[in-house]
Amino acid sequence: MVEPDNLVLSPLREIRADMTGMRGEMAAGFRAVEARIAALDIKIDNVKQAAFGESVLGRYAAAEVEERLAEIERRLAALETRS
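The structure assignment produced for this chain is given below.
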């Protein structure tokens, strides 16, 4: 009869041997995943920069409109005081 330790240890040794053989393939797979993640990080950074740039541009345009409206209101108030 087989000892209980060998019933567990034998399959574990086989799994270890299989995993040792797969290490090269797994390492290549991990490198590929890391490269894709790095590319995604770059794309996310680009989107953030574009969104921030549009936000700054929007604020600039809004400030310009505010200035124009303030000037129109000033002129209107001056016309109203004449009458």
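Interim note for the steering committee: The radius of gyration is 35 Å. The chain is about 95% helix and 0% strand.
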